[in-house]
Design a protein that fits this description.
This protein is α+β, with helices and mostly antiparallel strands and 379 residues long. Helix content is 42%, strand content 11%. The protein has 17 helices and 10 strands. The chain is elongated. The chain starts with a helix and ends with a helix.
């Protein structure tokens, strides 16, 4: 009875600190998840950003031996930007995914979890608690599903009845044996819009994602983006929202309940050309507070170059030529060479040939040759 009362008090307190949804789950191992994760690894579908120890991902007792229950939380974030700036010729813009609008969600959820942890420890001083957000050992989605936050959609996102899939997730392992909540039944049914809409076919089937083909993952890589994915990138600088945008459960969903999640339009949808010459310090000052900056400047700049090629933005020819000639990073030089060919065609052939003569990096030479082949094919 004491734990039942404490559970009610925790739920009430969670609302007072603006946690939008809370659920309780048992700390039993996630046995079916383990089988899926093993198969996922064998197929080569992992991103490499995950916790490498599968045993920790599926059993909270391998993270905290005293685990008796897990508390899951969800916070809803906006899906629409107020007064979004227009992208036009000469002033082309990129886009960060919705999960990277506003303040970095890792910080927001960690602050909420810390408040919740403090509240519980005031009530039960000898309780053991371990909290995590996204980068922790447990699977956020598996915990949220078991705790009744939502069901796991075919797009591999947790879909809540109230907020759709536009929610951030966090969890807290506790030594307190709370009564678990009831998981929600899958409500995707026969719908496969997310699978059909995925730009790269990364959604192999409902609930199975090949991370190596997922645009959200590809935008975070630091090396050359494989050419077959460049046209699919469009003007995305970080992340991808396609599988969420087409989901019927997200129709009309747009919540603005947390000021810190509100996007600055000039950050969430920035001009592309200034990104090419931005210093590390400028990048950190401008984008350091959003989650999409966690991999640093280079992936964003590479993606900006690809986005300019997507728009065939002729205003980019001079700055891209400067990158090809002077940038110390092979990935930026090579991507600039490819983009120049896509944008400028025959008019940049001489620049590419000059660059090839002085270039020493074999990968960059390969990109220059790729660009020259694009020009030859056009002719």
């Amino acid at each position: 009875m004491a734990y039942a009362q404490l559970k009610d008090e925790i739920i009430a307190y969670s609302k007072s600190i603006e946690i939008d949804k809370i659920g309780f789950a048992s700390a039993n191992p996630f046995l079916t998840l383990k089988d899926r994760l093993i198969a996922h690894r064998e197929l080569g579908y992992e991103s490499g950003f995950e916790e490498p120890d599968i045993e920790k991902r599926v059993d909270s007792k391998n993270v905290m031996p005293e685990a008796r229950s897990i508390i899951a939380i969800a916070l809803a974030y906006p899906s629409k930007m107020k007064n979004p700036p227009k992208s036009s010729k000469g002033e082309r813009r990129g886009i960060f995914c919705r999960a990277s609008w506003g303040k970095d969600y890792h910080h927001i959820l960690k602050e909420k979890l810390q408040l919740l942890e403090n509240f519980i420890l005031e009530k039960v001083p000898n309780a053991r608690i371990t909290s995590m957000v996204d980068t922790g050992e447990l699977s956020d989605r598996a915990v949220a599903q078991r705790a009744g936050i939502g069901w796991s959609g075919k797009n591999c996102a947790i879909i809540t009845p109230e907020f759709g899939s536009y929610v951030y997730l966090g969890e807290m392992i506790t030594s307190i044996p709370f009564t678990p909540d009831q998981p929600l039944e899958d409500q995707c049914g026969s719908c496969r819009r997310c699978i059909d809409a995925c730009p790269t076919g990364a959604l192999v089937q409902g609930g199975q994602l090949n991370s190596q083909k997922c645009i959200a993952y590809l935008t975070q890589t630091k090396n050359f983006l494989p050419e077959q994915f460049r046209a699919k990138l469009g003007n995305r600088l970080y992340g991808c929202d396609t599988c969420q945008q087409v989901c019927p459960e997200n129709k009309g969903i747009d919540f603005h309940m947390h000021k810190e999640m509100e996007p600055d339009p000039e950050v969430a949808k920035p001009l592309l050309l200034p990104l090419l010459s931005m210093s590390n310090r400028e990048f950190k000052e401008r984008f350091g507070h959003v989650s999409g900056s966690w991999r640093g400047k280079k992936p964003i700049q590479r993606n900006a170059i690809i986005a300019l090629a997507h728009f065939k933005e002729t205003e980019a020819i001079d700055p891209l030529t400067e990158l090809l000639e002077k940038d110390p990073r092979p990935v930026i030089r090579g991507t600039a060479a490819w983009a120049l060919a896509v944008i400028g065609g025959k008019s940049v052939e001489k620049q590419l040939k000059k660059a090839k003569d002085r270039e020493k990096d074999t990968d960059v030479i390969g990109e220059i040759n790729r660009g020259l082949n694009i020009i030859a094919q056009e002719l």
